[in-house]
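>> Question from a student workshop board

For tomorrow's exercise we were told to take the sequence and the ligand below, predict the bound structure, and bring the output to class. My setup keeps failing. Could a helper post the expected result so I can at least see what it should look like? The ligand is 5'-O-[(L-methionyl)-sulphamoyl]adenosine.
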Amino acid sequence: MRFYLTTPIYYVNATPTLGNAYTTAIGDMLVRHQRQRGADTFFLTGVDEHATKVWRVAEEQGLEAQEYADRIAVPWRELAPRINAEVDFFIRTSDDGHKRFVREFLQRIYDNGDIYQDVYAGLYCVGCEAFKTEDELTPDGLCPDHLVPPEWIEETNYFFRLSAYQARLLALYDERPDLVQPDFRYNEARSFIAGGLRDFSISRAGQPWGIPLPWDESQVAYVWADALVNYVSALTYARPGEDLRERYWPAAHHVLGKDILRFHCVYWPAMLLSAGYEPPQKLFVHGYLLLDDRKISKSAGNAIDPLDLVDVYGADALRYWMARAISFGHDGNASIEGIRERYENELANDLGNLLSRTTAMVAQYRGGSLRHGDAEPPLDLGALGADVAARLDRFDVTGALDAVWDGVRALNQYVTAEAPWQLAKDPADDARLDGVLYNLVDGLTALAVALAPFLPETAPRILAALNQPDDLAWDRVRNGVAEEVDGIEAAKPLFPRIELPSPA
Ligand code: MSP
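>> Workshop helper replied:
Here is what the output should look like for this input. Compare the format with yours to find the bug.
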């Protein structure tokens, strides 16, 4: 089983926002989970450098575009590790390996007769890095996403014959009803294709920043014709001396925001078909994480630096909040205060106290020794594991975490219902007390394994506190997996109280 997952590559016209951290963190959860199930995984993220807006910011700062990109690539590269995302390769579109591959890829399309020269006279929104038609603008002629007027461009450049791919794309969509998920996004992409496709420019004549076309070095590749190709190019040079294409293409799962659906669900499969590649296995389109009802952006003034939140709450708490605060796949409004509430009520209280109480009771009533005893388990952990896995196969990250959390809450109710402190008073209840404590440790062990993709730092700490093996294999999400061990001690708080830094 191969599972190759990509995030969009992010524009480097500014430093990372919470919105970018969101896609990367969720992608990491999906990859970690598939790895627990034994899949051969590869996780790709990176940055998109050859945009007009990147070039303009560099100019404003008085820097050569490449020098600017080299500097800003540093915080972008740090983003994934800081949010506990384990990336297999971080791609920059200015990598030599990428530039070489893009030229080859576009040359193949050219050789297949799908590229021709023509005059482009029309509108371009630098914010979207996209050509626009009048009917895509607001009544005042503004880009609806950026609320600025698009620029007029008139130049001779090269066009990709997208119109020639309409029938093949429709056939692909009909053959593969799960190509694009969720279903409403599939319908959106399919009706766009069915509505008729127009050829689009794949090069820019008036801009020096970009990858020169192999057959006409006076032009550079249009930023999307360069950026989309990263999903294949990375496989050709991520591991020196190895070509990973055979291993991971077409096992690609692209995760992307709804703003870039058309590029990924229409342009990209057509470009792949033209260049002789199979389309990806899945395109998962998610909505926006809105903060206080607005999309996160510098211009809206709500562009929180995700690393500030990591500094206060830790990466696992941030990931937990992102996965649970809104339903992944849909737009959702969150508030930053929600992190604190979830940290205290759910992470520290539901989970942290459950571990503290459980370990303290084993230490106090049983001298730290865990024995099977005699009590029915309160939860069918195998069924819970199957449900969580099925949800993650559908990329229902929020539903999966909710299901695990129901398990955490059920164990808390079990403690209240069984009252081990009462059982400890009467030696006649010894076997039952052992059984109840075993069920708690066993449940926590299985739930820690199920939580590992979401809380990769915390899960091993739970297993360590329970003296259980640090083994995250998914078949451990079942009943009876905990080993009889000795030496369990009262655990330190998993999520200690935090003092908020005073406002500057
Ligand atoms: N460079 C292009 C993508 C090229 S992929 C071949 C681009 N970059 S971007 O920096 O604008 O960010 C793209 C992605 O960031 C979005 O598609 C989305 O995945 C993520 N998000 C940015 N803000 C977001 C939210 N507020 N909420 C959810 N995702 C967000 O487009």
